[in-house]
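Lab notebook page, bench 4
Experiment: in silico fold of construct C2
Operator: M.H.
Input chain length: 197 residues
Purpose: comparison with the prior construct
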Amino acid sequence: MKTLLYIFVGLVIFWSGFPSEVKEENKWIVLQESEVSILGKTNINTFECQSFRYSGNDVLTEILFPEQKYAVWSGEVVLSSDSFDCFNRIMTKDFQETVRAEEHPEIRVRFLDLVRKNLGTPQESLTGNVEITLAGVCRRFPISCKLFKEENGKTLLKGSQEVTFQDFQIDPPVKFLGTVKVQNSISVNFDLILEKV
């Protein structure tokens, strides 16, 4: 019994010799002026569908590890499927039908583990994973993005992710008896304006 007690005390002393990892937590609110857009191509031209009427108030969390000089970001941005405008009435209608806006009213972009390594520089890079939920289907992708400090004291998180319609079990739209075909690959671009809570 004494032997077990000595082992236990020894382990406590051993582990207490290691300092606990110092970390800080910051909360960043995603402001209403943030933009998310979807860019694509047809066999004729390019198109862009941009999200309007974003309500804001989503929150991203940053866990800072100052001694190791890195941080980890996570959080989710939720958009209304019917808030996207393709600047063409027919294209907008087609987009909302394609993403099944009535059946799946939300498009979600969830940052899982963005790692920020070069702390304290004007332009910082983050790499990690993101989950995008579109038309009710969730897919995970590796992602790289940039963090910019703005002159007005706000921060811009900017990035882009290439996905395909087939990733989300969607058939690319075909119109006008097959004369206009949307390419399978699209780009999800985001410019998130952040303010520390």
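Observations: The domain at 23-196 is CATH 2.40.128.110 (Lipocalin). The two ends are 53 Å apart (CA to CA).
Next step: discuss at group meeting.
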